[in-house]
# Entry
Amino acid sequence: MPPAGSAEEGPGERDGFAAPDVRGAALVDEYRDQVVGLLDGVRLLCGDVGLPVADHIADYPAVHSALAESWDVVLSALNEVLRDGLPVTAAPTDPSAYVALLDEIRRTDHNLMLARLRHQDASLGRVREALATLRAARSTDELIELATEATGLLGFDRSILSRIEESAWIPENVWVGRDRQWAREILEAGCRDHRVLDRTLVETEMVQRKVPILVHDVQARPAVHRPIAEASLSRSYAAAPLMAGRDVVGFLHADCYYQGRELDGFDRRLLATFAEGVSHALARTEMMDRLAAIRTGFDRLSGTLGSAVGERVRLGGPVPRPRTAVSSGGATQRHDDHRPTGGDGEHLTRRELEVLRLMASGDTNGRIGRRLVISEGTVKTHVKHILRKLGAANRAEAVSRWLGMEHQRGGRGAVPGLRRFL
# Structure
């Protein structure tokens, strides 16, 4: 698809380079113009020697490389003039012109280094600002939305938050700062083709070594998630693991597509610092999801019991009491009239467990369908099977029974929200 909004469409931008108030490591216009003018001076003095053109001066690494190349060109020209006593071209023959140009290159490189350090210092400060926005999340779903969007505060243009489930890489949310429709298309491309994390994917390194990664030449690399790469048109990206204890449970990817620049090591470290904070926030919303699901289940069960009692009293019948049954050993056992007896959940299929986990986190049938890339009708069928297998009368009772059974078993599947990451 043609990316909605080329670099020229954004306010305050020109030729794909960030305006001075854009956050991140992109080169601001003031410095870019200074470097372009300097390169023109080198060409005037030394001739057309193949130095980078203005469109290639997009970020600090590119500028540093161009200045280093210019230094070599001017120094070589100066040595030739001093050796032969002749001008290299029709340019001025006074060696002081070359010396002055070398001094200007050195000063420019030094000033840009200081500017880059200021950018980095400011960016690290914005990590705190970005993490502060996550405090508003009251569920894991809200946190996922906020976390991807907060990467924009760090200077990134787009981000993807994914979970890992049984070695499968499953995108959860995509944020594109300028185009929500494009974000949906990237998410759909990733959900249609869940990739297994094996040696064919560079992301496997994050799982094995628990370290962030930096990927360049995305469109030419076979070891990336090809459907996402083709849908996003990404040139380079950084990615960091999301942790739960010592386990990698998800990924956070980001790039700077609209800024038209290559990401570097600092971008990787910046994203990794933010991802560490997101991991802590996920642990918090996990507990909130669990409490909310349990509260909802018990509230609905209490309402059902209360309605039944009220109906009997209104009709003049006796208030129900627990039944007793005699076991084979003669002891009495107590049963709840309103809690179905069968259904231990042992025979739930993998897909039904996925649906049940999303039910526990409060997702609707429509949202479950979008997450699992199945129709809403198929979700309803799975829900019906789940209710039957658990002996539950409704969704809330099914979730409550499942949470209770998983707690007794010591299983991990009982936790809603974040547990779909674990």
About this structure: The beta strands are 158-165, 168-176, 195-196, 213-215, 237-244, 247-255, 323-326, 332-335. The mean pLDDT is 77. Residues 265-314 form the longest helix (50 residues).
